[in-house]
Design a protein that fits this description.
It contains 14 helices and no strands.
Amino acid sequence: MNPVLGIFLHALGGYAAGSFYIPFKKVRNWAWESYWIISGVFAWIVAPWVTAYLTVPDLWNVLSTSPGGSMALCYIFGVLWGVGGLTFGLSMRYLGMSLGYAMALGYCAAFGTIIPPIYFGTFGGLVATTSGLVTLGGVVVCLIGIAICGWAGISKEKELSDDQKKETIKEFNFKKGIWIAFVCGIMSACFAFGIAAGKPVAARAAALGTSALWVNSPAFIAIMAGGFTTNLLWCVYLNVKNKSGGDYTNSGNVPLFSNYFFSGLAGTIWYFQFMFYGMGTTKMGKYDFSSWSIHMAFIIVFSNIWGLIFQEWKGSSHRTLSIIIAGICVLVLSTFVIGAGNYLASHGF
C-alpha cells in the first residue's frame, strides 16, 4: 500500500486520458474517420498486445486455455463498449475538449455507477443502505453538473456566431454533440461488464504466474478487439460515404508520415490511461474505493486545462465561463461523493 504513489499513477492515467486528443491537432488534410481508426489500431490492437506480451509470462497459454465463453463475452461487451469509444471521439469532434470531456465523462460517471448494479440485480440493495444512498446522491450531483455544463454550452451557442464557434472547434455542433455524449455514457458502461466477464481469464493468468498488477491484460486484448471492430466498421463506412479512403495513401498535399505518427501517438496515449489506472488501484490499499473518483477528477481537470490552453471558450462572456467552471467543479465533486459511497460500502454501511 502506497496511496501517494497510487494517486500519482492515477494522475498519470488522468493526464493521458485528458490529453490523448492533442496529437490529432497535428494531423493535416485527413478526414476524422481516417485518423480516428489509425489511432484505434494503436489503442485497441497494438498497445494491448504489446503490454500483454511484456507483462504476462505465458500469454499464449493463458489465451488458449482460458474459458472460450469468457473470451467471447469479453469481445461482445467490447463491441458494445466500442460504440461508447466511437461516440466519445465524436463528442470531442462536435463539442471540443472542454465541454466534450465534461459532458461525456459526466454521463460515463453517472451511468457507469448505476447501470452495473441494475444489470447484476443489486440495485435494490443500493437504496436500502446508507452507502447506496450516498452513491446515488453522487449520481444526482453528477447529473446536476452535466446540466450546468449543458447550460454553458447553450449560452456559448447563443453568444457566438457560427464563424466564432468554428474558429477553435471546426465542427462545433452543440445539439448533435450533447446527444452523442449521452449515448457515450450509456455504452461506455459495457467496459465494466467486459472486465467482469474476463475474471476467469484473469484468474487463469494469475494461476500461470502473472503479477496481480497485470492479470487483466489478456482480457483487455479481447475487450479492445471488440471495440476496434465497432470503430473499424463505422470508419470504413464513412471512408466510403465521404470518399476519404484515399487518405491513407494519398501523399499529394498530405504529410503521410506525420499523420500516421500523430494518429498512432494519440492512440498509444489513450491506452496509457488504462495501464496507469490499473497500476494505481494496486497501490491504494484500503483507499481503493476512491480510485475511480480520483481518475475521473483528474481527467476532467486536465482536459479542461487543455481546453483553456486551446482557447475553446474564446469570445464567451464571463457569465458563460463562470457557468462552465461551476459545472466542472460540480462534476469533480460528484466523483468524490460517489467515492464516499464506496468507502461507506467497504465498511459495511
